Amino acid sequence: MQFKDIAGQRDVINRLTEIIDSGRVSHAQMVLGSTADGALQLVLAYLQYLDCTNRQHYEGGELRADSCGECPHCKKMAQMVHPDLHFIFPTAATPRVTGSFWSGDFMQEYREFLQENNARGTVDEWYAHLGIENKQGMIRELDAAHIVQDLGLKSYEGGWKMMVVWMAEKMNTAAANELLKTLEEPTPGTILMLVCESDERLLPTIRSRVQTIKLRAVSGERRAAASSEFASLLVEWLRLLFKLKMKELSAQVDKMSAMNREQQKQFLNYALGVMRDCFMHSAAGTPVEIGSGDQKFDTMFPTMVTVNNVELIEKALDEAIMAVERNANAKIALMQLSFNMSKALKKR
Asked: Most exposed: 89, 113, 115, 200, by fewest CB within 10 Å?
């Protein structure tokens, strides 16, 4: 992966190449941003540039520098077969892999996934690739133990020992605590790169020990498509919250609970964002787009989220998100959310 292949992150890239050229490379860094916005691409290009033997520097262009793409290091990195490059990512049991397992047991599938999606595939697409859509992927203590082990080994090619932890927020507590040892006492010549979409879900002790690189959102078309799909579902659900006809509401909850858990979380986070936009509209007159296709509904609903109920609405959605993350029964969690939301909206 080269920097020239990444869209929309030129300022960040130029800052990173300048840091590498100056020799001020931090041993633990976190790229904060979605994979769809190029977060993983950026990490792979960064590591390729780090050990490139023929770095290219430009005058007057958008990019100040890039890896050559031709040296042995670059070619191995491009094919993701460099012996000093390691990956950790969320997994779950499959028909092929059961019992005690770690990321290395899925490495062939992961490399295929990266190549097929040009390192822009979402975690939801990764789960679909593995066939575990209805399971919660996780980074476990055994994964963290391999991070410590792999970074402690001697470099095969005499350069940096590189570890990429994709979707770092999927670490369970045991894995995060195990990783702290490496962050506190790094071995020389190692670099640990976390890719994270929501750093709020990382332990504060992890966040405080990494250098954070924030990306700006650039994947507008992809995000807009997802928002359009969720908008229709959200509006159907909101209409039923006012009627509270149990048969219709139950059918709607069935539709929502039929999504896999990652999609459920995405939908609930989308709903949370819409509710906050509605509150800002009520409180400060900022514009908000519900997307129902019904002008009357789009005009009326934002006024339902006020200072009197916005905290109750946020609490209800946050609790539902936590329930889904903890593998609670989705239908029960979403039905409870429906009751809580219905009560909250009537308190406007």
From this structure: 200
